[in-house]
Each structure stands twice: as C-alpha cells, then as structure tokens.
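Consider the following input, taken from an annotated entry for Exo-alpha-sialidase (Clostridium bornimense).
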Amino acid sequence: MNKIRNRIVFVLLMTFLVGSLLQGCSGAETVKSDKYTETTLKLKNNNMYKTNFQGVLEDIRDEIEMPEQLYVDEDNNISMKFKANGIITFIKGRLYGVNKEGETIFYDMYYNREISKKIKVRYNIANREIDDQCEIETLLDIMKGINLREAVYNWDSEEYGILFYGNRKWEAGTEGIIYVNGKGDKREEEALENTISTASMSLYIPEKEEIITPKRYILVKDINEINGKAYNGEDRINVDASMNMSSGEFEILDNGEVVYKLNNNVRYYLKIIAAAAGSREYGLYISEDDGDTWGEVNYEPLDKMGQAAFMIFIDEELGFISLATNGGKNGYLYRSEDGGYTFEEINYNESARNNNSSIDIDIEYFDYPEKVYKKDGFLYMEVGQGADGDYKGNCKGIYISRDCGNKWEFLKISNTTSDGD
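Applying the prediction step yields:
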C-alpha cells in the first residue's frame, strides 16, 4: 500500500516539476475560465526605439496563436507609454481578428511595468464585423516611417505616450498633423483645412498635451498627394516671410519666427512648429523665388528648444543660427555647411580657449551670439552677454574664424556694433 502511495506521489511530483519547467522555459502562464482565456508572458521586446509595437506583437504571437491580420476595436485605442531611454512602461488596448474557424477573437492587452514585467493578454470569442479601416498594420507602418528617438529628442521629458486610433475625427484647424508614408518621408500640416476622420497615431508628453502640441501622424500612400490635393514640396508660410527686405538682412517676426534674405531669389525661414513655456521648436524652410513659394529643408534642424536670436547664411551652403535659452540669458550657436539640411552646435568659447590659452579676460561672460558676418575673407562673430550681462559695461566679444566658422578665436572686446558685410 505504501509503495502504491509513494508511486502516486512521485507521479504527481514529476507532473508538477515538468509543468513548472515548461512554464519556466516559455515564460508564459495560461489560465482558462468559462468566459475567457488569460495568458501572462514576459515582454522581451520592451524598447520602443528598437522594436516599437512590432516587437510587442512578436512576443505575444510567440505564446498565443493569433490571426495573421489584426484590427483595432473602434471603441478603444492602443495606449502605450515609454521612458526617455525607450523602455516601455505601459500598454493597454484591444485587438481582434478572425481565426481559421471563422470566429472573431478579442485580445485585451495590459502591461504596467511598475507592477510586473509581464504582459497580460485576455482573449475570448465575440461576434462583430471587421472594419478594414482599423488594421493594426497602419500603426506598424506609421512607426516604420518615423524615428521615435528623434521625434521626442527636443521635448526633454522623462516619459512619452503613444495613442493609436483606428478611426479618429480631427477638426479643421487641428495643429500638429504630420503625414508619413512608411518610408521615412513626412510632411507637416500647419493646420487642417478640413475636418477629417482617419486612423492616426499621436505622440505626446503625458499631462502636458495642452502645453506642448502632440505630434499626430497620419499614414498616406503618396506624400506628394494628400486627399486628392497635389503637393509640390511647398508649405503654407506666414505672409510676413515675403516682406520687403534687403539681401543679407534677417528679420525676427512678432511671433518669434525668423526670415533671412540671402539674395534676390533665396530666402530662409525659421518657422515655429511647437511651443512650450516661452520656448519654441523650429522647422527650416527655403524659398527660391523671393518668398512666393516655400519648401521644407529640415523639419527639426536644432536639438534644443529656445528662441531664435538670428539666422544668417553666408552663401547657399554655409549658415548659422543662434538659439537663445534661459529667458535670453545665454544662447547656442549652430552651423550648417550643407544649406541647412544638417546643423551642428559650435562651442566657440572652448574653441577660443584652445586656440589662445593666454586670454587674460573671462570670455565665459560672452554667451549670447548676436551676429556672424564675413569681412576680408574671414568670418567674424559678435557675442553679447544676454539679458543678465553686466561685465565691463555689458560689452561684446568679437571672435574671428579662419575656417568658415568651425573654429573660433577671441579677438577683442567691443562696445560698438560691427560694420560687417
């Protein structure tokens, strides 16, 4: 009798151990009830920058058999949050699809990293019609077409959020609309001309949606033709950008945007694309017909938010932008050598110290670039002290560059304005 009892105990124990081993290998736990089946599984692809929502789906499919084509429930959305380093912290949403038996299956997802590093997926059979407009592939294609790390770079927040709607109504006048084609091409809409209803993905800072305009991505097949309207690389631009100006002049508009006229044909325009707490994010545009039509050069040329203090192009390749921060107390200098397609921050004071270690004044007071100009074959720059300057009567520092603005030398102190051409 004891032998039989021991064998039963042994069999039960082995069954438990094998089950635990299998569960440990897969990382998934499945519970069934009369109403639904729930599987809890480890989220291995947990970085939004690296694998985005595609990685989440792959993890779920590894443990749960799902239809190849999935849709977003029109009464819900896919909500996700992630840290500045890309780590996913929250997922909530519902998918559905039709299995091989022709049954419609709901998949409710929930993940909260503060509670567990595993995602729960609850699924059951439900009757409903499939809405082709709500395919999850739309979200995946949108994410393929954007670089999330770059998209949030200038926001400087600890956490970001994503909302995907299978069908959302956007009223005329909505800002932050960005059309993408899934191939890396994008175009910003200054404000919607007409009300539209479409699938869209919103990228935002949680609890700051009213302060910082979310980026609202809409997938289109042809970036050059949207809603039947042809697009020739031109955007609606503030009429003030076509004001009367002389060549070599820049003008700061009342709203903080900046226009620079290079010659009789070419103008550059720093256009505000986002604003928050007195700081702005700019896009760079160019006109080659003296302001009649405009095309986008760089959607986000600068890696910081602030207020543009000046924009100057020496020629059609070499250009400079000064960005004021901290309430105008200091600024940053940016340089482009490819016509504005890319910009690099230039640390002119560090460069000046390296080029002249015997400087006998504290050049750190000069922290607000005000002007760059060319004279006698060299570049010169006036650097002020910003809104809080009081060094030597709030004088300016004059710098010189002999290599087109890549490296700078401190030249002298000046209390007068230059006569640069």
